[in-house]
Amino acid sequence: MAPRQGTVFKLAWPLKTIIQRFAFLALISLSIALLLLGKANIAVVEKLRTTTTDVLSPVLATISQPVDAFNQAVERVQKLTNIVEENERLREENARLLKWQAVGRSLSQENENYRQLLNALSDPLVLPITARVVGDSGGPFVRTLLLNAGRRDGVREGQAVVGPLGLVGRIAEAGEKSARVLLLTDLNSRIPAVLENSRYKGILVGNNSSSPTLEFLPTNAVVSPGDRVVTSGDGGMLPAGRPIGIISSVGERKIRVQTFTDWNRLEYVSVLRYDLPGMNSPYDNPGDMGESRLGGK
Amino acid sequence: MTPTFAYQFNRILRGSLPGFLTAVLALLSVVPTGISGFAVVTPSFVAISVFYWSIHRPYLMSAPLVFLLGIFSDFLTGAPLGLSSLGLLLIHGIAVSQRRVFVGKAFLLTWSGYLMIAFAVAMISWIVACLYSLSIMPLMPILTQFVLSLLVFPLFAWGFGILQNNVLKHT
């Protein structure tokens, strides 16, 4: 594509430079305009974004498969080296957990009896949709995940996402075949939370670091490191009582929370399809699939 | 003599290589690796690619293409739309205007050029991101990403160099 030397070219040269300069400045301005517009959540932009992730999520799923396989192989080899100790430990843990299971069963039965005595409403139905993590945030500015499940699988904006150990975040955008999760560590994440034992309520605020802070607690709340933090279910958007993490440090102004979720090993997560009582429109209700047990039809 | 269709087609295919390669790198940078903390500090492969091709084949890495690649990578990562475009366009603009300094000189000069430009753009992106979210973002991940990008730069430059000499020699 070497430029041909000729009179026309020589004449056009300054003009070409001017156009190029202009195009460059125009594109810079366009980027800044997009940044400003992005604050407003314009429908067309959202649509474009979800369409792009819809198209790319199968590609990403394919690329991430060998990476996952490799990681699993490495993990297997690591596990093989201490298989005897691991087995011993798991046996002990299993014995302990079996006792807990017996306790749990009898408590759950007792709870059910009391509920019937009081004629209390049961919690809304929660159904998990398991999805593969096909993409991560790939940069320092946001904390998000890309899932290979979308609206056609029942994923809606606002639904809670949980991992094997605890809450991961919430669905921020749902495409047809893909969805983006806003992790609870992201700067924009706000999760209503409650201290499990003392029942003080607060808001878990993400700050782009690995330990979000618990804010808006009542001024007389007594908090100490080691307290368990779970979702409060306030606002009705998330199911109550899902584990989030433990209080790791109580500072002068900041109460930090260490999350249960292991952020590096999220291969599969569950999106909680959650029937909100009284919200029967499939557009408003983050989980309504026409299976609502509450709310009159 | 007008070039044959096959020749034209071949030339277009070869010419689209830098853009295509950059898009693939954008995809690769969001693949979950399972490495502790890597998702946050993944080196900016896209920025390296844009910098390299802006110096060595500026007409194959034009400003509109850089803009589209930025939008593409913002869509993928979920970052504020336009943030990557702005950063990549700045890298492209500086690299193209200073390419006489880099072309045909020692690799160390290109590397130090990347150091300065990438650092400046990382800081600008940080300021823009802070303004966007109206809060102070942790600076550490951004600096770590910058250092990691700097460390992998020679590897990518070497790979791109091989491609350039074999596939894009006459374009």
Can you describe what's shown?
The complex is a heterodimer of chains A (297) and B (171). In chain A, the strands form 2 sheets. Chain A has a 6-stranded antiparallel barrel with strand order 1-2-5-4-3-12. Chain A is built from 3 helices and 12 strands, in the order H-H-H-E-E-E-E-E-E-E-E-E-E-E-E. The model of chain A is unreliable at 290-297 (pLDDT under 50). Chain A is globular and about 85 Å long. Chain A has a domain at 126-274: Beta Barrel (Thrombin, subunit H). Chain A starts with 6 loop residues before the first helix and ends in a 23-residue tail after the last strand. Chain A is α+β, with helices and mostly antiparallel strands and 297 residues long. With 171 residues, chain B is mostly helical. The radius of gyration of chain B is 17 Å and the shape is globular. In chain B, helix 2 (17-28) packs antiparallel against helix 4, helix 4 packs parallel to helix 6 (83-97) and helix 6 packs antiparallel against helix 8 (107-133). At the A-B interface, helix 1, helix 2, strand 1 and strand 2 of A face helix 3, helix 5, helix 6, helix 8 and helix 9 of B.
